[in-house]
Design the sequence.
């Protein structure tokens, strides 16, 4: 199986200005993705999940994430933290991507996981263009 990715237009413009640790974490993710796709999450150190999972169905965040097929991956910035109850790692920063198909994703943004009010950060619409 061939797995491919691309950068969203806005993300592609900004990637060169990302700190080196973020660039490295993103490249590590895309390297693993090209080998395994999203068929085996155990190949990734960080947690991967649809961004609408666990969100109230009638909320804006659910509708926005579901409509745009947004997923996120915990990239280990500033560090990976082992879940107390599950067999995966999380981090404060997440990489957002659009799952276009089972074989193709679009990397769209890297954001702090939660806002100060506890709501989940989602990429702005300008980041969803590809």
Sequence:
């Amino acid at each position: 199986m061939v797995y491919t990715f691309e950068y969203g237009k806005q993300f592609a413009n900004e990637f060169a200005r990302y700190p080196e640790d973020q660039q490295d974490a993103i490249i590590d993710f895309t390297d693993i993705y090209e080998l395994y796709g999203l068929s085996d999450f155990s190949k990734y150190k960080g947690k991967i999940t649809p961004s609408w999972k666990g969100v109230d169905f009638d909320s804006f965040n659910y509708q926005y994430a579901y409509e745009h097929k947004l997923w996120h991956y915990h990239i280990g910035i500033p560090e990976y933290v082992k879940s107390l109850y599950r067999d995966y790692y999380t981090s404060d920063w997440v990489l957002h991507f659009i799952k276009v198909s089972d074989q193709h994703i679009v990397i769209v943004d890297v954001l702090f996981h939660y806002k100060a009010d506890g709501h989940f950060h989602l990429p702005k619409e300008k980041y969803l263009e590809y």
User: Anything to note?
Assistant: The chain has three helices and seven strands. Residues 95 and 110 are 4 Å apart (CA to CA). Residues 20-36 form the longest helix (17 residues). The mean pLDDT is 94.
